[in-house]
Amino acid sequence: MTVVCLDLEGVLVPEIWISFAEETGIEELRRTTRDEPDYHKLMRYRMDILRREGLGLKDIQATIARIKPLDGAKEFLDKLRELTQVIILSDTFEEFAKPLMKQLGWPTIFSNSLKIGDDGMLEDIIMRQEEGKMKAIEALSSIGFRTFAAGDSYNDLRMIRKADAGCLFRSPVNILEENPDLKIFNTYDDFLSFIKENLK
Amino acid sequence: MTVVCLDLEGVLVPEIWISFAEETGIEELRRTTRDEPDYHKLMRYRMDILRREGLGLKDIQATIARIKPLDGAKEFLDKLRELTQVIILSDTFEEFAKPLMKQLGWPTIFSNSLKIGDDGMLEDIIMRQEEGKMKAIEALSSIGFRTFAAGDSYNDLRMIRKADAGCLFRSPVNILEENPDLKIFNTYDDFLSFIKENLK
């Protein structure tokens, strides 16, 4: 039995914070871990902006609901879920992912979560665990699953290498150059064909 | 973050082998672990009958596709999947579960699987691991999830007791009497309310 573990942002949906900045027009929210490597500091910065703008969880979710999955992502995921078990492993927050999961037909997602205040504002982030993606692969492996993992970013590499099989999907060129042994696919058709080969 | 783990047969769908015996009219397939406690011996008996009847995996899946989820099960599961992560933990085989998973909207299921011969006949069973339900709870707990588990049968008790919270659903009276400390629910509305209380 195989379980296929997929990164969310960049693989099935656009980068949520970038799309959110575009939807709201709040340019400051384009700041990413490339600009601020301390994730907790970055999230504090983002949460302060959201509070200043009066954007609570419900407003954020309504905005995220206008973000669409990547073209062809739903069809790809539907086909994959008919073939094997699929779990999305993401560093995002389940409250942010929810409007996108709805559009994708409620696949299972292992992510982090948010602490929401009585006023509906974001108060803090709750990380399920450090290295959550890789640890999930280890846990699934420990209960007898053959694991396949795919993603596009630095935070996906350890999960991909820990899994029994895996690949990159639409990664930027620097990740490709630093990981020449990993296969990369750029269309859902090629990606699905490669996964199918690995299910045999 | 909570993950809700549900047994399949008796909770969301009817007992598959009983329904299969009814659909096909093959009375011998009503034999269960109550008649033959050795599961591997029972499955060998069932596989021999299926081969004698010329029923390969595709025929079996076509028959199972005519079995419907329990009344209200899909609606219950849809509501639950909007609230939290859900994984079905079942001792059945993924190939048998598939036509039912399709009707339930492809929830994630951790189950066992079958070895299918070149002629399409069932050759053997492949258990993912012993005590698979309980071990899955342990694995999900190890990666930072709060776990909730529910089922109706003897093979669900260890999973329910291992989880952070749980209950019985439509259990037979002997299981109730032997486990007076466990709550039991008989309608999806009451069941969902109890799970919601445990998500807070």
How is this structure best described in words?
The structure is a homodimer of 200-residue chains. Helices cover 44% and strands 20% of the residues of chain A. Chain A has 9 helices and 7 strands, in the order E-H-H-H-H-E-H-E-E-H-E-H-E-H-E-H. Chain A has a 7-stranded mixed β-sheet with strand order 4-3-2-1-5-6-7, sandwiched between helices. In chain A, strand 5 (146-151), helix 7 and strand 6 (165-169) form a beta-alpha-beta unit. In chain A, helix 3 (57-64) runs parallel beside helix 5 and helix 4 (73-83) packs parallel to helix 9 (188-199). The longest helix of chain A has 14 residues, at 39-52. The first copy, chain A, is globular. The interface between A and B is medium-sized, with 31 and 31 residues.
Q: What's the count of strands of chain A?
A: 7
Biggest interface and its residues per chain? A-B, 31 and 31 residues
Report the sheet-strand fraction of chain A.
15-25%
Q: List the total number of helices of chain A.
A: 9
Low-confidence stretches of chain A: none
Helix content of chain A: 40-55%
How would you concisely characterize the structure shown here?
The structure is a homodimer of 200-residue chains. With 200 residues, the first copy, chain A, is α/β, with parallel strands linked by helices.
